[in-house]
Design goal:
With 184 residues, this protein is of the alpha+beta class. It folds into two domains: 72 residues, Alpha-Beta Complex (Outer Surface Protein A, domain 3), CATH 3.90.930.12; 82 residues, Ribosomal protein L6 (Outer Surface Protein A, domain 3), CATH 3.90.930.12. The chain is 23% helix and 38% strand. The chain contains three helices and 13 strands, in the order ββββββαββββββαβα. The strands form four sheets. Strands 11-12-7-13 form a four-stranded antiparallel sheet, with helices on one face. The chain is elongated, with a radius of gyration of 22 Å. The protein starts with 8 loop residues before the first strand and ends with a helix. The mean pLDDT is 91.
């Protein structure tokens, strides 16, 4: 039995959930999301709670049961509260600018600025050297944040680059410091 899959999902007051055939739609104050439910999974809405069950127990069906439950829970959280990831730019002369709400322009030591265009449900905000990626779809927010970080990941010697806020970057010792250390 899936420990995650058998837990019911509570629907908040400001969210509306509809099932049409195999399609589940969630609507809230921040927007609307929908998902296609696999035929192996049964879904029921009773007393402002969503319960999921599987038709036949197999390893694949058990995994999809828990995954589907978490996807639905993340959709509900996304349309009511939203998701956000914060990135930090470190380095002299490194900066970010917005062009509109969906285009991020990064100047991070290359000969040209790097442009990242986000889908319509994703918003960028910049505050000093902190870039905030926010939206209603957890997967899209994470993907755009990872794409932004991949432009210039933090390098291990000086620590310059783009990193998640709170991310620890292991620093390496340089050649001069390595040569100065006495060996036994």
């Amino acid at each position: 039995m899936s420990k995650i899959g058998k837990q019911p999902i509570v629907i908040p007051q400001n969210a509306e959930v509809k099932i049409t055939g195999r399609k589940l739609s969630v609507k809230g104050p921040k927007g609307e999301l929908d998902i296609e439910i696999k035929p192996e999974i049964d879904i029921k809405i009773e007393d402002k709670k969503i319960t999921l069950s599987i038709k036949a127990a197999s390893k694949k069906n058990m995994a999809m049961w828990g995954t589907t439950r978490m996807l639905i829970q993340n959709m509900i959280k996304g349309v009511t509260e939203g998701f956000e990831k914060k990135l930090e730019i470190q380095g002299i002369g490194y900066k970010a600018a917005l062009q509109g709400k969906s285009k991020l322009i990064l100047n991070v030591g290359f000969t040209h600025p790097v442009e990242i265009t986000a889908p319509e449900r994703i918003n960028f905000t910049i505050e000093k050297n902190i870039i905030t990626v926010s939206g209603i779809d957890k997967q899209e927010v994470g993907q755009i944040a990872a794409k932004t970080r991949a432009v210039k990941p933090p390098e291990p010697y000086l620590g310059k680059g783009i990193r998640y806020v709170g991310e620890h970057v292991r620093r390496k010792v340089g050649k001069k410091a390595e040569a100065a250390t006495p060996t036994k």
